[in-house]
Amino acid sequence: MPYPFEHLRSDAQQAKLFREKLPQLNAAMPEFFRTMAIAQHSIAQKNMFGNPQGIRQDLGFETALRLVLMAGLNERLFTINEDTKSLVNLLRLLVLKWYSFGNQVDACLYFGHYFYAFQSHSQYAVKLLMEQSRLVAPEADKVVPNKEGLALIGMSPEPRWYKSVDGVGDKLSTIFLEIADLATVDAQVSGFQVHFKKSNQYDLRAPLFIRADAIEVPEVLNDKVIVRCPHCGQKCRGHYFRHIEITCPKCQGHWSQRM
Ligand SMILES: [Zn+2]
């Protein structure tokens, strides 16, 4: 089964920068990936009744996760006071980057299983690991963020979300999230929690949560549709089809989206 970001690769220069700017993470990531790949094989095995066997506790996954968190703290990607949700988001970007250096897709599948499908459980585990690291972590208010490191793992360009009949997509990439893989959240911040429980096609390019106000809902008038250009923000008009392709009259930027 093809994986949504299977072909994502970074060049040798990016790998070199990663080694230079994030040496502790560069040392901690292989073990993290190794334990996640084993955990993925473990949950993929079915018992005689066809149910997943579950994960053995002695796989070293939590230990490896703790070491990655410590490395990230020491390398100033985040501080000990980082909000758990944004911390998990940084972990996701880190795993995506490490994958793009040619590492195992199985590790990414486990990351997705653990962090998207079991959000409250995994976020609680991360919170506990961070609390246990509090005494040895650098003091938050003395930490200067590692801008180069953050830029290296950051996704560029940032996704430009739009709503369609059957899901949420990004105008600038092939990311598309089906309705059944999302849960509507109507709390202080409303939006969609991304859990991939229907498709299990964990697309690590997608965040765990997308704010409603970051998602454009197209205006539809009879057979016409009005959508914003993801490059310059210009309102563009097109014919209503299930799949539309638009070239912006202002900046000549091109994109496609579903309706
Ligand atoms: Zn434009």
Contiguous low-pLDDT stretches (5 residues minimum) are none
Shape descriptor: globular
Count of the domains: 3
Roughly what percent helix? 25-40%
What is the count of DSSP helices, taking H or I runs of 4+ residues?
7
Largest sheet: 4 strands, mixed
Q: Walk across the major sheet and give the strand order.
A: 3-2-1-7
Share in β-strands: 15-25%
Amino- and carboxy-terminal Cα gap:
26 Å
Bound molecules: zinc ion
Describe the structure in your own words.
The longest helix has 22 residues. The chain folds into 3 domains: 142 residues, no CATH class; 57 residues, no CATH class; 42 residues. The protein has 7 helices and 12 strands. The strands form 4 sheets. The protein has a 4-stranded mixed beta sheet, with no helix packed on it. A 3-stranded antiparallel beta sheet has the order 4-5-6, with no helix packed on it. The model has no long low-confidence stretch (mean pLDDT 92). It is of the alpha+beta class and 259 residues long. Helix 2 packs antiparallel against helix 3 and helix 2 crosses helix 5. Zinc ion binds next to loops.
